[in-house]
Structure formats: C-alpha cells, structure tokens
Write a structure and sequence with these properties.
The protein is mainly alpha-helical. The protein is built from nine helices and six strands. A hairpin with a 6-residue loop joins strand 4 and strand 5. It starts with a helix and ends in a 12-residue tail after the last helix.
Length: about 210
C-alpha cells in the first residue's frame, strides 16, 4: 500500500470530518503559510467555513498558523500550513490501531468454528449455533460450518500491507525531524529504529479515532 495524498486524505477525513478533502488537498500540494482568505477564495466558500475546518484540524495538531496584521485595514490575517510530521504521526497511530484490530480479528478467525446461514443472514460461533439448535433465527434455515481459510488469508494480507505502511510512515516522520537517510541507518536493526521513533516528541490527538 503506497502512502500518497489520497491515503492521507481518507484517514484524516475518517478522524476529523468528511468535508475536509478540498481543503486538505490545497494544504498538501500548496506552499506553506496560505492565507485563510486565499483558501476561502480557492474553495469558493466563506472564511468562517474555512476557519471551522482549520480549527478542527488544529485540535488534532495537523496545522500550524502564523498571524500578520494588515497595515491598511488594521486586523490580523492568519496564514496556515499543514504540519507534516504530525499528519504522518496521526496516520501512523491510526494504522497501528488498525493493525492491532486486525491481529485480534486474525486470532479469532484462526480458532475457527464459525457457522453461517446459507443465504447470509447470520454468522455465529459454535456455542451460539448450539443454543439455537443450528437454526438461523432470521429465516429458519439450518446453518452450516464455514470454511474461513480465505478470510484468514485476506486478514494476513491486510496485516502485511499495514505493517509496510507503518514502517514507511515511521521513516517519513524521521525525515520530517531532519534525520536523513534513516532507511539505511536503521534497516538492519528494527528495534533500534523503533527506539528512535519513540524518542521523538510530537503532539498527536486521537479524539475521534479513540472510540
């Protein structure tokens, strides 16, 4: 799985809000310190709408801002920049949570003993099937034991892909902190690599994803 802007957009939208892709795309491809008025103009929405989205991103430490006083009008204008290291950090936390969920799911699937309705109403464990005398409570059909080998293989594939993304994100975080050529430096010792990652300090808030 490649780490690209689409993956970043999808993850942040899951955590912060589904209305963010247009704004996030501008921040990803644009130059640093973009005026909120410029963002509103490019998105064809009001400044207040832009601010609402930016404030939500700021709650997760995904954007930084500076403010400058307009000498002619006398008010402050805010200029926003995507915080890449925190963005990668949030994405890595999200993916690591997914990885733990996949591992738990794999452990359950490998035990086996699942029974399914022939028309797809329900899926249950052996003890549940015994309680209902191997009958589907939705349609009354006899449930049959499921061969879930394909499911197990699919989960293993997803775990492998998620681990690749996790490692690539770790490298990106190190690079954002100015540690260059980190792949060569740490590739031979993954424990040392993770130790280096754990020492890095960047504020990551997982409010929406923690549930």
């Amino acid at each position: 799985m490649k780490i690209d802007n689409q993956l970043i957009e999808e993850t942040i939208c899951d955590i912060v809000g589904e209305d963010l892709p247009p704004l996030l795309n501008l921040l990803l491809v644009g130059k640093p310190n973009i005026s909120e008025f410029k963002l509103a103009e490019q998105l064809n929405i009001t400044v207040n709408q832009v601010r609402s989205m930016l404030y939500r991103m700021q709650e997760h430490n995904l954007v930084d801002f500076i403010r400058k006083k307009d000498k002619r009008k006398g008010w402050y204008i805010y200029y926003w920049t995507l915080n890449k290291k925190n963005t990668y950090g949030l994405l890595r936390e999200y993916k690591r949570k997914q990885l733990e969920d996949l591992k738990s799911r794999l452990a359950r699937e490998e035990v086996g003993g699942f029974f399914v309705c022939p028309i797809g109403c329900v899926r249950m464990k052996m003890d549940q099937a015994m309680e209902v005398e191997f009958r589907c409570q939705e349609c009354g059909s006899l449930v049959k034991e499921q061969n879930n080998s394909r499911t197990v293989e699919n989960i293993k594939k997803m775990i492998k892909e998620t681990r690749v993304v996790d490692t690539e994100l770790a490298f990106k975080i190190l690079n954002e902190f100015g540690i260059k050529n980190c792949k060569t430096e740490f590739a031979s010792n993954i424990k040392e690599f993770e130790k280096s990652i754990s020492k890095l300090k960047f504020p990551i808030v997982m409010k929406a994803a923690s549930g």
